[in-house]
Structure formats: structure tokens, C-alpha cells
Amino acid sequence: MLCLMERIGYRFSDEGLLRLALTHPSSAQPGGESNQRLEFLGDAVLQLCASHCLYLRHPQMHEGELSRLRAALVQESSLHRVALAWQLGGLLRLGPGEESSGGRDKPSILADAVEAVLGAVYLDGGLGEAQRIVSAHILSQPPPSRARDYKTELQERTQKNGGPAPSYEIIGEEGPPHQRLFTARVSLLGQAVGQGQDRSKKAAEQAAAKDALSKLSEAEEQ
Length: 222
Description:
By secondary structure, this protein is mostly helical. It folds into 2 domains: 137 residues, Ribonuclease iii, N-terminal Endonuclease Domain, Chain A (Orthogonal Bundle), CATH 1.10.1520; 72 residues, Double Stranded RNA Binding Domain (2-Layer Sandwich), CATH 3.30.160.20. It has 10 helices and 3 strands. A hairpin with a 2-residue loop joins strand 2 and strand 3. The longest helix has 22 residues. The chain is globular and about 60 Å long. It starts with a helix and ends with a helix.
């Protein structure tokens, strides 16, 4: 793991946190820990650090532009590129099923691992160290050609008319750990307006937002 610490430019005091960040759920013992909680934390840390940096770097941008730029920089394909640069694939602890199905090369697993590492850095060294890594390794890369961000589009569309912000929840999971399929639902004021499925929670939420936008457009045309 020393090589990884050199790549990211941070030396852990508690290397157990880094080992946990590299432990995929498929390899965890029954009742044992995996990197899912660190991924949850790291996602929030990434959003905060990216928002802070972009707010300072682009004083001329309004909220919608900042949201779209942040979404492009922290989306799965961007984090996948960071994971490749950090060579995370060879360091992941995977179960036999995920190993045999090519888990070390799956963009969703690698992107989740980047978030887990950020969560581990935050716990070990604080927000300042996490901010430095986000700035140096994630926000320094050019934004990828951006796929449509349906979640941002839906939020802007609803709030433009004074409506509430959409809320998302994962309502279903199926399949083995190495081929998990998630179902997400998006609601407005507690009423479901869209649903979608995909191989990661974030992608499922995007699919749900896309479904909601389609239904809203159909309703307006009637």
C-alpha cells in the first residue's frame, strides 16, 4: 500500500483505514466490514471539497453552471480515470465471484474505491488533506465530454417553477454481489415521479431522473 500512498501524496497514520477502503463487499467476511461505509462518507467529502474549490475558482459562474461542472468532474467516468492513475485495480480485495467476472476493471467498482479512499483520508488526516487530494487528482483533470446529467436537469426544472427539490431512494437490489442491479425511485413532495435501474446506485438515480423528465414532458404536451 506504500505505493498507493506515494501516488496519492498522503501517508496514512492508520493504514487499516486504507486497507478497509480497498475491501470490496464481495470479499468481506459474513458480518465483517467492507468499504461501503467509507464510500458513503467519501462521496459526501468529494461533493463538499469539489463545491468549495469550484466556488472559489469560478466566481462568475451561477449555481446551475457550478452544479453541472461539478457533476462532470465527479461522475463515475472521471473517478474511473483517477482510479486507473492510482492503479487501484490491482490493490482491491475482491471475492472469488467478483474476481472471476473482471471486477478489477469495472468502472463502478473502481470509482467507488476512489470515494472510499477519500473517506479514509478524511478520517485519518482531516478535511484539509482530503481537499488537497481532490484538488490535485480530481479537479485538475479536464472535464470529460459530458453525458447528460438528468438529476441536475430535473432539479433545475422543478425549482425553476418554485417546486421542491427531488428526493431519491434505492427501493430494490437484485442479483449476486458482483452483478448487482439497483432500482431507484425519485419523488416530489412524497409522490413518485420516476423510476430506473442500473448497475450502480448513482446510475440508477440518473435513470430515475431521466424517466421523470420524460413523464413531465409528456404531461406538458397533453
